[in-house]
Amino acid sequence: MPTVGVKRDSLFKALGKTYSDEEFQTLCFAFGLELDEVTTEKQMISKEQGAEQSVGASEEIIYRIDIPANRYDLLCLEGIVTGLLIFLEKIPAPRYKKIHLKPNDRQTIRVTETCQQIRPFIVGAILRGVTLTKESYDSFIDLQDKLHQNICRKRSLVSIGTHDLDTIKGPFTYDAKPPQEIRFKPLNQDKEYNGLEIMELYAHHAQLKQYLPIIRDSAVFPVVYDSKGTILSLPPIINSDHSKITLNTRNIFIEATTTDLTKAEIVLDTLVCAFSQYCKEKFTVEPIGVLWKSKTSSGDASYPKLSYRDVEISSKEAVNYVGIDRSPEEVARLLSKMGLKTTVKGEDLLSVEIPPTRHDVIHPCDIYEDIAIAWGYNNIERTIPQTSTIGKEFPLNKLSDHLRLELAQAGFTEALTFSLCSREDVSGKLGWGFDEIPAVTISNPKTLEFQVARTCLLPGLLKTISANKKMPLPLKLFEVSDVVLKDKKSECGARNERRLCAVYCNKSAGFEIIHGLLDRVMQLLEVPWSIDKSKDGYYLEAAEDPTYFPQRCAKIIVHGQEIGKMGVLHPEVLQKFELHLPCSSLEINIERFL
To answer: In this protein, which residues make up the domain named B5 (predicted)?
Structure first.
């Protein structure tokens, strides 16, 4: 949950009413927010940097408010005030609109083909006739920072640049150039630097150093410049000092470069909706044309979108979900309090208008949630369900617990290993190529140890044994947990599978121990041994698997279907896991027994 700090006096002035701390906390809770802390600037600095750094800081009261992670429109004072005033029914929801211009009068951004190599998209907008105070200026900068840390994923997805339009001249160009060819004066610096020098300049900067890896190793850096060649920004690192906005800025040019166009549209809508109230003509935004061209296609788009969309829901279904009994007219009023203008169509149908500030509404359930918030969760009457049911354990978990108990009684120790592992753990170390493994890959792994979701339990147990070599022999471990496998038939492209894995490690391989454990498991599951290999029981069938020693591996067939393998592990596999004693293992899918 992001936390927004707002000055209490400024907040109450904008709301037109003074509240006690308890009253405001109650109001926040009713609106779905939480007043996390009442503090001062001096206390905040003292807590973060020490008492010495807080000398001269303001004693003005600051409210730190927790905002739901999906409500980007509430990440600044302006958004909170607008939302609360609509909730209190003091103002109607603002109507955001774009200024209609002739094509020749519209500012444009031309996107070059080379941008495809690094950050392929850009969006933009202009706020005209803006009047900023010190507080609104600080709020404007703070909202950008909150968005960067939240939906922008620390600028890796979207990077926002804001510029004084009167200091630059369109049309603008978004290009990607070698770092040596980029030269400008960064924000608040005294001299010009090229791209490589900027990387060195901010290598130890407290805030900016974390963004350098996004483009540092690229052959080209993204850059935005105007018709005169004046550089505006080097996204996602730093803006130019030439076009920085000040309290005297009247026309603000906003650009956002991105790798995810949808996220950039949300960010731009959020930013211009929050601060268009300071424009000479309130809640209006001047659009910008983006002209792009790639090797395969070209196009012309206009931003911001500021699109309104209508969603029709059943009032009866909505109140049944929430658990209240209200008429369609009352439900429409509740939704209008949450900024979702709603009208009644017919006896039961509601037409809900989703404004550009509410990108969090993507499903009717999101609308039902707003009804519950507006009504008040504490006001929902508690009732006894009409149908009496008895809770019971999930069958798969019940089976897993029974097997865990029996395996422990057989002398094996349970291990709980990581669900994520490296690519080598599930492929190369087990003798397989990674392309042969149905592994789900993590797109942005934090370390090399956690690159994929595990496709089998064996690597985790072998790593556990490797870390406990000093324990007395034999080492007998088991685990009953889920693995993750790619599955095109699944809705999300992957599925979980509950498996049982056991490993025996001693001076001899102990294949008979593992075989005996399999027989015990089958006895517990009431699956008989099939002498004639019929479909009425279980039997073993010779198999070749690079994980296991040649001619020491068997497939386990139950009711005519393969459920897993067992055998003596290959010496090369043991060596890759830094083990020097022979091991035998068993791994089966237990979901087939439900």
So the answer is: 306-382
308-311, long-range: CB < 8 A, 24+ apart: 308/353, 308/354, 308/355, 308/356, 309/353, 309/354, 310/351, 310/352, 310/353, 310/354, 311/351, 311/352, 311/354, 311/361, 311/364, 311/367
E strand segments, 249-329: 252-258, 284-293, 298-303, 309-314
State the pLDDT at residue 49: 57
Contacts with 282 (C-beta within 8 Å, 6 or more apart), sequence order? 94, 276
Q: 388 — phi, psi (to 5°)? A: -85, 125
Q: How far apart are CA 529 and CA 556, in angstroms?
A: 11
Facing residues of 494 across strands? 486
Coil, strand or helix: which one is 554? strand
Contact 315, 349 (CB under 8 A): yes
Nearest to 498 by CA among 377, 583, 398: 398
Q: Which two tokens stand for residue 431?
A: 């003798």
The pLDDT assigned to 401 comes to 94
Whole-Å CA distances, 442 to 419, 438, 447, 499 = 12, 13, 11, 22
For 1-47, what is each residue's pLDDT tens digit?
789 999 999 999 999 999 999 999 999 999 999 998 888 877 766 66
| CA–CA gap between residue 324 and residue 452 (Å, rounded) | 45
Distance of alpha carbon 3 from alpha carbon 23, whole angstroms: 19
Kindly give the parts of the chain with pLDDT less than 50.
Answer: 54-55
> What sections of 276-394 are H helices per DSSP?
315-322, 328-337, 364-375
Note the pLDDT of residue 384.
Answer: 80
Q: What is the reported pLDDT for 500? A: 95
Enter the tokens of residue 215: 């483009």
Torsion-angle region of 229 (φ positive above 0: left; ψ -120 to 50: alpha; else: beta): left
Cα distance between residue 230 and residue 234, in whole Å: 12
How wide is the angle at C-alpha 205 spanned by C-alphas 204 and 209, nearest 5°?
A: 80
ω into residue 474 within 30 of 0, thus cis? yes
| Cβ contacts of 144 within 8 Å, gap of 6 or more | 160, 162, 271
**pLDDT value for 175:** 94
